[in-house]
Write a structure and sequence with these properties.
By secondary structure, this protein is an alpha/beta fold. The chain contains 11 helices and 18 strands. The chain folds into 2 domains: 11-217, Alpha-Beta Barrel (TIM Barrel), CATH 3.20.20.10; 234-356, Lyase, Ornithine Decarboxylase, Chain A, domain 1, CATH 2.40.37.10. Strands 8-7-6-5-4-3-2-9 form an 8-stranded parallel sheet. The structure holds pyridoxal-5'-phosphate (PLP).
Length: 357
């Protein structure tokens, strides 16, 4: 049996979302974040759809080289910089830009005979990567003295809680710390991820760094992409491979996690956690059968998931099932599965066939 499980990528939607970023942050340049295989959409497919961006951001040299092999000559920023001397020749040959967030990277650069564009990362409260505001000035002095910095040094920070709108005051505090720290220095600045772009206009600065919103998905837990004028670009579909009636009291799936309250018509859809559909999707997680609302019943298994067909007397094997997409926001699945859309988008496995429109 050939597997019907598919992820469709709508590249027009991707391009539309970049246009939305430009509308929302009209005075900023755009560094499109396409790390992790373009958030699961395909690195080159995403990059080509975002070819109007001013730069791309990726996590590592491997991802950056894939962009060059794919014929994209844009500026590319390595968000975690480099860790070893063997990476320096790739920087030189491809003009990759690097984030410097740790003293070991400055040491590495001091021993290099190359010039590279550098973003100095300042840790204003995320406590993941970057120099504290107290250490940033010394790091900057050292970088400038090293003679490796090509052009003007640039500055960035990353927001930890910008998706918690109306929440604690961390975001304005982070923005203030960053601007206080870098205020006297000349050089371009970047703060905003998607949540900053959508929720905190004062974070826009010279460069914005959208990720999730470019894929049509909201960074906020209680919103969806379409509420921000974004178009979801990935839809995941499969089909019913079995349809049956079970008696009242029958239990469905591993562990008998769902029990039929009445005689129940149900179906089996060909998708499971082996495809990236989350095992933690609870009873009642929405799916669409023939475009109409249905729900998951019982535990998700590796290759299959059971769906409730009590409201779908017409459903037959071979009928389409949508797990997420334009008509069923991935944000909603994420809520029912105790995760975030980012993880679902990145997690579609290789077994799933990708169709790029
Ligand atoms: C991934 C990433 C972004 C984009 O974040 P989104 O929440 O997806 O918009 C921005 N900046 C840095 C440093 C990142 O690692």
């Amino acid at each position: 049996m050939t597997r019907a499980t598919r992820a469709r990528i709508d590249t027009d939607a991707l391009t539309h979302n970049l246009t939305r970023v430009r509308e929302i942050a009209p005075d900023s340049r755009v560094m499109a974040c396409i790390k992790a295989n373009g958030y699961g959409h395909g690195l080159l497919e995403a990059a080509k759809a975002f070819r109007g961006a001013d730069a791309f951001a990726v996590a590592c040299v491997e991802e950056a080289l894939e962009l060059r092999s794919g014929g994209l000559g844009h500026p590319v920023v390595l968000l975690e910089g480099v860790q070893r001397g063997s990476e320096l020749s790739a920087l030189r040959e491809n003009h990759f830009e690097i984030v410097v967030h740790d003293p070991s990277q400055i040491e590495l650069l001091e021993s290099a005979d190359t010039r590279v564009r550098v973003w100095l990362k300042i840790d204003t409260g995320m406590h993941r990567l970057g120099f504290s505001p107290e250490d940033a000035s010394a790091a900057r002095d050292r970088l400038l003295a090293s003679g490796v910095v090509d052009g003007e040094l640039r500055f960035m920070t990353h927001l930890a809680s910008a998706d918690l709108a109306g929440g604690p005051p961390e975001t304005p505090e982070q923005i203030r710390r960053f601007l206080d720290c870098t205020g006297d220095w000349s050089g371009e600045r970047s703060i905003a991820n998607s949540a900053g772009i959508l929720g905190w206009p004062e974070s826009h600065q010279d460069w914005v760094r959208p990720g999730i919103m470019l894929y049509g998905v909201s960074p906020f837990p209680d919103r969806t992409g379409s509420e921000h004028g974004l178009r979801p670009a990935m839809s995941v579909t499969t089909e019913l491979i079995a349809v049956k009636e079970i008696p009242a009291g029958a239990r469905v799936g591993y562990g008998g996690h769902w029990q039929a309250p009445e005689p129940t018509r149900m179906g089996i859809a060909a998708i499971g956690y082996g495809d990236g559909y989350p095992r933690h999707a609870e009873n009642g997680t929405p799916v669409l059968v023939n475009g109409r609302k249905s729900q998951v019943i019982g535990r998700v298994s590796m290759d299959m998931v059971a769906v409730d067909l009590r409201q779908h007397p017409e459903a037959r094997t071979g009928d389409p099932v949508t797990l997420w997409g334009e008509a069923l926001p991935v944000e909603s699945l994420a809520r029912h599965a105790g995760t975030i859309p980012y993880e679902l988008l990145c997690g579609v496995t290789r077994r799933v066939k990708f169709d790029v429109d």
